[in-house]
C-alpha cells in the first residue's frame, strides 16, 4: 500500500474537520478524493504532506510510518496553493526547485537533473514558456508549472489538489491523461477533483468525503449512484456506462 491513512482525526481551532478517516491508496493507481465544498479534501491532503499534524491516527507513505520532512520530500510531491510563487523566478527555475530534495547541501545540478526538468516542462506543455517570469503566467499555466515542479521531484507518490483547476478543456484532458500514463509506469497518484465526470473517467478508485468523514470508497462504478449524488453532492443526475465506466448526465441542483 503506497499511502495508508488510519483513523485520522484533524482538529483546527479546537473543532474536528476530519474524523476517523481511513484511506488506502495502492501503488500505481490514480486515486480520486471527491466531496462537496468544505468536506475536508484539502485538509486530508495537508495532513498527508505534513502541513498539519493529525490529532489522532497514523499516516504511512510508501511504507514509511511518519517519515521526516526531508525524507518525505524525496518520496512525495504535492501541489499546494500555499507554495505559490511570488518571487521573480522563471518557469524553469520554479520547476528546478523540484530537484532540491535530491541534491546534497551545496551540490550542483547535474546533466541528469536538467534533463528531468526539461522532461517535466515538456510533459506539461511548458517548454516554450520555460524562460518566462512565473508571475506573468495565466492561472492555467501557473497550475501546469506547479505540476511540472512536482513531476521534477520524481516522487513515488504525487498529490495534486484540483489539478484541472484553471485549465481549459484540452489541458484538463492532457493533464489527466498524463497522470494515467504516469500511474501505468508505477507512480501513485492522489488527486482531488470536483468534476465527478473526470473522477469516473480517469480514477481507478475514489473516496467520497462528506462532512469530514469517509462515506464510500471503491471503483467509480462501485461508488457513484444516484442516491449518493443526491445525498452528498445535492445534484440530480442520471448514470449510464461507457467502456465499463460510469458517465454522468447532470439534470441540476436539488
Ligand atoms: N486553518 C483552518 N482553520 C479553521 N477552519 C479551517 C481551516 N482550514 C480549513 N478549515 C475548514 O475545514 C473544512 C474543510 O476544509 P477543506 O479545505 O479541507 O475542504 P475541501 O473539501 O477541500 O473544500 P473545497 O472543495 O471547497 O476546496 C471547511 O469547513 C474549512 O472552512
UniProtKB/TrEMBL annotation:
Residues 3-236 form the ABC transporter domain. The lineage of its organism: Bacteria, Bacillati, Actinomycetota, Actinomycetes, Pseudonocardiales. This is Iron complex transport system ATP-binding protein. The keyword ATP-binding applies. PROSITE patterns: ABC_TRANSPORTER_1, ABC_TRANSPORTER_2. GO terms for molecular function: ATP binding; ATP hydrolysis activity. The keyword ATP-binding applies. Keywords: ATP-binding, Nucleotide-binding, Transport. Signal peptide: none annotated. InterPro entries: AAA+_ATPase (IPR003593), ABC_transporter-like_ATP-bd (IPR003439), ABC_transporter-like_CS (IPR017871), P-loop_NTPase (IPR027417).
Amino acid at each position: 500500500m503506497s499511502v495508508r491513512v488510519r483513523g485520522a482525526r484533524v482538529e483546527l481551532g479546537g473543532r474536528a474537520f476530519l474524523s476517523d478517516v481511513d484511506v488506502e491508496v495502492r501503488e500505481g493507481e490514480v486515486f480520486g478524493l471527491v466531496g462537496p465544498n468544505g468536506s475536508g479534501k484539502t485538509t486530508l491532503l495537508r495532513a498527508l504532506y505534513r502541513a498539519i499534524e493529525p490529532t489522532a491516527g497514523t499516516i504511512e507513505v510508501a511504507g514509511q510510518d511518519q517519515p521526516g520532512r526531508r525524507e518525505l520530500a524525496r518520496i512525495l510531491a504535492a501541489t499546494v496553493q500555499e507554495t505559490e510563487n511570488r518571487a521573480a523566478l522563471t518557469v524553469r527555475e520554479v520547476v528546478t526547485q523540484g530537484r532540491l530534495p535530491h541534491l546534497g547541501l551545496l551540490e550542483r545540478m547535474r546533466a541528469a537533473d536538467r534533463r528531468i526538468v526539461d522532461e517535466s516542462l515538456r510533459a506539461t506543455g511548458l517548454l516554450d514558456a520555460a524562460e518566462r517570469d512565473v508571475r506573468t503566467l495565466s492561472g492555467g499555466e501557473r497550475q501546469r508549472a506547479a505540476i511540472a515542479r512536482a513531476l521534477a521531484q520524481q516522487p513515488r507518490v504525487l498529490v495534486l489538489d484540483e489539478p484541472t483547476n484553471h485549465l481549459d478543456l484540452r489541458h484538463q484532458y492532457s493533464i489527466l491523461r498524463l497522470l494515467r500514463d504516469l500511474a501505468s509506469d508505477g507512480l501513485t497518484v492522489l488527486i482531488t477533483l470536483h468534476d465527478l465526470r473526470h473522477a469516473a473517467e480517469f480514477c481507478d478508485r475514489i473516496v467520497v468525503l462528506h462532512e469530514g468523514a469517509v462515506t464510500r470508497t471503491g471503483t467509480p462504478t462501485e461508488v457513484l449512484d444516484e442516491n449518493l449524488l443526491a445525498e452528498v453532492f445535492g445534484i440530480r443526475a442520471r448514470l449510464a456506462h461507457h467502456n465499463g465506466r460510469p458517465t454522468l448526465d447532470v439534470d441540476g441542483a436539488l
